[in-house]
C-alpha cells in the first residue's frame, strides 16, 4: 500500500498535531503506511505536550504532492486551511469536528465527523470501535488535544463525549488531567518573547464568508492587561497582514483561559466592522470590544460572523 | 428533542429507502425522534424487499421545511439529489458512500462515509459499534439494500465489508441471500408494463460536471434484446426530458444483471457525445454502445465522465 501523509490544518494547534500522531498510529496498526506531519511548527503549548509524552514534533511540510499521491486530513476539511497543493493529491480519509465547506472529491472516501469539542475525542471512539489498545504516550497526546480545544472542558463546544474521553485517556496516560491541563494551557500563554506578527499567526484561520476573506486569530493568555498594552502593535500587524494577504477583515480574539472571557481586536473596512458589530451585537470602541464568555472560534465566532456576512 | 426526517436521494432505490428505515430505527433507539421518509415512490425491486420483510413503503415528501427544522441524509449528500428545499433545513447527520460534492454546512455535524458498496454496510457497522441489536426485519431490509447496490456482490464497488455484512445480515434475517437476492433483483427488471418516460426516471441522478448538467439513468433487465426493441422510444423520451429539464447529456445504462454487461444509450449535443466517447474510449453507433462489464454508475460511469468533462 502506497504511503500517505496525515496532517491537520495550517497554523497547527495541539489537536491538529496530536490527532495526526494518534491517527497515524491507528492507521498503521490497521495496515496502512502513514506518517504524521504538520503544516507548521508546533506552538509552545503543543511543544509542552509533545515533550511531556516523549514525542518529537512532526516534520513540517509545505507541499504534499512531491512526496505522495494521497493524504488523510484531521481537524480540518476546508481547502484554504490545508496544504497548499491539496488539489494535486487525493484525500482518502478525513476525521474532523468542523463544518464542511468547499470540500469536494471525485471519488468516495472515508469521512468521519462529529460535533464534539475535539478531533481526538472522535479518534478515541475510533480506537475503541476498532478495539486497538491505546498506548500511554498516544493517550497523553490525545488528552492534551482535548484539553487544548475545550480549554479544560470549559469551552461551550465541550460535550459529554469529550468529558468521557478525557477521563478515560487521563487514566491510560497516568496523569491528573486538571493539574496537567492547566500547566499545559499556561505553557501556551507566554506572549512576552514573541512579536505581534508571530502572535497573530500562531492560531489563525481564514474563512470565506459570502465572498469576503475573513481571518480569525486567537491567543490564550493569563494576563489580559499585559496583552492589551501591545494593542497598537497588534492592530498595525493585523493591518499589514490584511494588506499583504488580502483579508477583508482581521479579528484577533485574546482569551483569558483562567476566567474564559475574551477581548477582540478588529481591523478591516467600515462595512466589515459594521458586520462584526451586528454579529456580536456590540460596538467597537477604538477597534476593540469585550466579548464576555466567548472562547470558541468555531462555536461562538464563526457562526455569528457567517450569519452577519450572509445577511 | 425536535423531530427530524431521514431520507435518501430522489428517485429512491432500495439503499435509499432501506437504509433510511434502518437509520431511523437506530437513531430512535439512541434517543432521537426521527421518521424515515422517501423522496419518491418505491420501485418494484424495493417494493418486493419491503413486502418480504413486512414493511410498508415510507411516506413520500416533496419538501421538508414545512414539517421539520432538521434532517438526516442517507445514501447521498449532493444538494441537487436531495429534497427540493434542502437549503431551508439544517442537516445534522449524513451516512453515505458517495463522493462529497457541493455539500456545505454552517455548523459541525455528524458525517459518516466510507467507500463501500452500500450505505447499509456502514449502517450495519454502526449498529455493531453502538451495540444495538438488529431486529430480523431491519436486517432483511439492510441485506436487500446491499444486494441491490452490489448486484448480489458482483459489482466492482463490492468490498470485503459488504460481503461480511451480507453474511451477517442474511443470518439474522433468516434467508438464503443468493436465492432471495436473485428473486429481489428480478422483481426490479419487469419493464414490460412501464412507459419509457417512467423507466428513464426510475433510477436516475443528475451530476454537475464542470458546468454541464449530466443525467445518468440505469435500468436492470434480464433480457437485453427485449429492452433494446424500445430503443427509439427511449431516445425520444430522453430527448424530451433533456429539453424540459435542461440536461446537456442524458445517458441510459441498461444493465443485464445476469451477466453484468450493459448497453448505453446517449442523447445530447455533439460536444457532449464526443466527451462520452472519450470517457469510455468507445464509439457511439446510432446513439448506442456496448459497455462490457460496466454495471456501476458510481465507480464505472461518473469518474470517467467527470474526467472527460473536466479535460
Describe the structure.
Chain A is α/β, with parallel strands linked by helices. The first copy, chain A, folds into two domains: 184 residues, inorganic pyrophosphatase (n-terminal core); 115 residues, Diaminopimelate Epimerase, Chain A, domain 1 (Roll). Chain A is built from eleven helices and ten strands. In chain A, the strands form two sheets. A five-stranded parallel beta sheet of chain A has the order 2-1-3-4-5. In chain A, a hairpin with a 4-residue loop joins strand 8 and strand 9. The longest helix of chain A has 16 residues. Chain A is globular. The termini of chain A are far apart. The model of chain A has no long low-confidence stretch (mean pLDDT 96). At the A-B interface, strand 5 and helix 11 of A face strand 5 and helix 11 of B. Strand 5 of chain A pairs antiparallel with strand 5 of chain B, so a sheet runs across the interface. Chains A, B: Its main location: cytoplasm. Chains A, B: InterPro entries: DDH_dom, DHH_sf, DHHA2, DHHA2_dom_sf, Mn-dep_inorganic_PyrPase. Chains A, B: It catalyses: diphosphate + H2O = 2 phosphate + H(+).
Amino acid at each position: 500500500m502506497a504511503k500517505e501523509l496525515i496532517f491537520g490544518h495550517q497554523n497547527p494547534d495541539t489537536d491538529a498535531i496530536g490527532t495526526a500522531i494518534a491517527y497515524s498510529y491507528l492507521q498503521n496498526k490497521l495496515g496502512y503506511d502513514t506518517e504524521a506531519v504538520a503544516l507548521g511548527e508546533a506552538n509552545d503549548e503543543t511543544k509542552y505536550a509533545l515533550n511531556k509524552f516523549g514525542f518529537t514534533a512532526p516534520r513540517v511540510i509545505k507541499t504534499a504532492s512531491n512526496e505522495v499521491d494521497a493524504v488523510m486530513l484531521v481537524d480540518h476539511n476546508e481547502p484554504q486551511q490545508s496544504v497548499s497543493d491539496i488539489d494535486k493529491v487525493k484525500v482518502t480519509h478525513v476525521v474532523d469536528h468542523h463544518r464542511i465547506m468547499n470540500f469536494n472529491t471525485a471519488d468516495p472516501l472515508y469521512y468521519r465527523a462529529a460535533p464534539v469539542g475535539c478531533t481526538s475525542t472522535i479518534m478515541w471512539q475510533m480506537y475503541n470501535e476498532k478495539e486497538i489498545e491505546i498506548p500511554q504516550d498516544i493517550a497523553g497526546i490525545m488528552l492534551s488535544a482535548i484539553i487544548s480545544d475545550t480549554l479544560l472542558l470549559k469551552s461551550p463546544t465541550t460535550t459529554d463525549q469529550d468529558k468521557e474521553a478525557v477521563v478515560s485517556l487521563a487514566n491510560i496516560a497516568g496523569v491528573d488531567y486538571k493539574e496537567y491541563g492547566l500547566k499545559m494551557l499556561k505553557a501556551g500563554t507566554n506572549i512576552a518573547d514573541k512579536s505581534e506578527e508571530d502572535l497573530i499567526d500562531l492560531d489563525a484561520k481564514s474563512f470565506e464568508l459570502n465572498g469576503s476573506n475573513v481571518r480569525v486569530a486567537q491567543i490564550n493568555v493569563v494576563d489580559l492587561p499585559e496583552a492589551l498594552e501591545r494593542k497598537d502593535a497588534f492592530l498595525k500587524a493585523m493591518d499589514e497582514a490584511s494588506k499583504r494577504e488580502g483579508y477583508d477583515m482581521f479579528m484577533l480574539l485574546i482569551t483569558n483561559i483562567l476566567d474564559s472571557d475574551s477581548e477582540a481586536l478588529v481591523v478591516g473596512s467600515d462595512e466589515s466592522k459594521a458586520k462584526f458589530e451586528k454579529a456580536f451585537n456590540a460596538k467597537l470602541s477604538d477597534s476593540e470590544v469585550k466579548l464576555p464568555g466567548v472562547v470558541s472560534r468555531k462555536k461562538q465566532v464563526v457562526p455569528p460572523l457567517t450569519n452577519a456576512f450572509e445577511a
